[in-house]
Fold these 2 entries.
Entry 1:
Amino acid sequence: MKRLWAAAILFFCAAALCFWQGWHTGRTTDLLEQEVRAAVKASEQGNASLAESHTLAAIQEWESARGPLCVYTAHTRVEELGRTLSALPPLARYGTFDQLASECERALAQIDSLRWIDRPTPENIL
C-alpha cells in the first residue's frame, strides 16, 4: 500500500511540474510576443525610442524567464532566441526599421516555436 501512495505522490508531482512548465512557457511567450509586436508597431510609426524601449522590455522579460526555461527546454533553442532578441535594441536605436522588422519576425517565429514545442500535448508526450 505504501508503494501505491508513493507512486501516486510521484505522479501528482510530475503532473504539477508539467502543468507549471506549460504555464511558465505560455506566460513567457505571451509577454515576449506582446513586446516584440509593440516594437514592430512602433517601428512602423517611425518611433525609434518607443521601439527600443519595447525591445529592451522584451530582453528584460527574457532574462528573468531564461533560467527556468533552460531546465526543460533545449539550451540551443533558448540561446538562439536570446541572441535574436539581443540584436533588436541596436536596430531600433539607429533607426534601421527594415532590419528591425525582419529580426522581429524571426523572433516571433522562434517565440511561436518555443510556445508549441514545449506544450504538454499527447504528440509531445508520446
Entry 2:
Amino acid sequence: MLESKYQMLSRFARIFLAVGLLVALWGLSTARRPDGQVWVHPLDTHPGPVRILRFYASVGILTPGQTAQLCYSVENARLVRISPMQSAWPAQDRCFDVVPEHTTHYTLLAEGFDGTVAVRSFTLAVQGPPATRPNGIQYAVRRRITTRTHSPTSS
C-alpha cells in the first residue's frame, strides 16, 4: 500500500509539471516583446530571411557638436551591428542619438537565424561652422599729413 501511494504521488507530480510547462509555453507564445516580436516562434513556422526595412539619419548634414538620430528597423534578425559602433538590438523600430565630430560612414549589418546577412549603409556629413563676419564693426583709416617747417635759425 505504501508503494502505491508513492507511485500515485509521483504520477500526480509529473502530470502537474507537464500541465505547468504547457501553460508556460502557451503564455510565452502569446506574450510579445516591447518591439512587437513574439518571444517563442511556434515549431511549425520558420522565420523568413533577414531584411533591413529602414536605416537612416534624421538629418542630412550636421555641424560639429550637433545631434542626429540614427534609426533602423530589421526583420528576422538574430544579430545586428552598426559600425563604427559595436552592436545594436534586433528591433522592429529603434532610434538613438549620435553626435559625430566629423563626416561618418555608418553601416548596418543584420544576420538572420538561417545565417544570411543583409547590409545597408549611408554617410552622415559634418561640415564646419559657417564663416562669421564681423557684426557691424567698421574701421576707418585716416591719413595723417605732417608738414615740416624749416626755419633759418634752426640750421
